[in-house]
Amino acid sequence: MATVVFDLDGTLVDTAADLIAAANACFQSRGFGDLLDPVADSPIAFRGGRAMLTAGFARVEGPGAAEVEEDYPRLLAYYDAAIAVHSRPYPGAWEAVEELMRQGYRTAICTNKPEGLALKLMAELGRADLFPALVGADTMPVRKPDPEPLRESVRRAGGDPAQAILIGDTVTDVDTARAAGVPVVMVGFGPTGDAVRDLAPDAVLDHYAALPELVARLMP
């Protein structure tokens, strides 16, 4: 049976508000106040900590690349301390994963979030049991869009990397799946909405209730 691999932020869980809160804590410490908005800037949040810091500092005079690197560890510490205040799974996500498991599919997470933070988030949300394998940004020497983290997540789940499907929300996930030679499904309810269709995935998921049937069609 195939392995269904999920990206985490923006795919399984809406983490934007907590990520942006961590970035804003860095800006506040420099006297700038909140430079990012948790709703309007949510697409930036899913591009990573450095992207958030870069975007925020671009809105004020002075800070640049050096400040981004200086504040990045602080951002991670702020985020670690308040990782699941506002973060919630997208509607139907856990139920869809449970149904896939009942049907015999293996499940895993492959994320560009640091592994320790990803594990902590899943523990805080109380559903780490749904994903026996998790590969993060620092689990291996490479990260997505290199295909090896995806393949490793499948291997850790006990599956065959050639029999897998990736569920994601950004071009990074599309590029990862293409490099690995497996199908990719983009969620249409993530940070970029219906614009994911422009990335030409194998399918777009409009609601998690449709995922088991979609997986069965793409991985017969």
From TrEMBL:
<dbReference type="Pfam" id="PF00702">
    <property type="entry name" value="Hydrolase"/>
</dbReference>
<dbReference type="GO" id="GO:0008967">
    <property type="term" value="F:phosphoglycolate phosphatase activity"/>
</dbReference>
<protein>
    <recommendedName>
        <fullName>phosphoglycolate phosphatase</fullName>
        <ecNumber>3.1.3.18</ecNumber>
    </recommendedName>
</protein>
<dbReference type="GO" id="GO:0006281">
    <property type="term" value="P:DNA repair"/>
</dbReference>
<dbReference type="InterPro" id="IPR036412">
    <property type="entry name" value="HAD-like_sf"/>
</dbReference>
<dbReference type="InterPro" id="IPR050155">
    <property type="entry name" value="HAD-like_hydrolase_sf"/>
</dbReference>
<keyword id="KW-0378">Hydrolase</keyword>
<dbReference type="GO" id="GO:0005829">
    <property type="term" value="C:cytosol"/>
</dbReference>
<dbReference type="InterPro" id="IPR023214">
    <property type="entry name" value="HAD_sf"/>
</dbReference>
<dbReference type="InterPro" id="IPR023198">
    <property type="entry name" value="PGP-like_dom2"/>
</dbReference>
<dbReference type="InterPro" id="IPR006439">
    <property type="entry name" value="HAD-SF_hydro_IA"/>
</dbReference>
<comment type="similarity">
    <text>Belongs to the HAD-like hydrolase superfamily. CbbY/CbbZ/Gph/YieH family.</text>
</comment>
<comment type="pathway">
    <text>Organic acid metabolism; glycolate biosynthesis; glycolate from 2-phosphoglycolate: step 1/1.</text>
</comment>
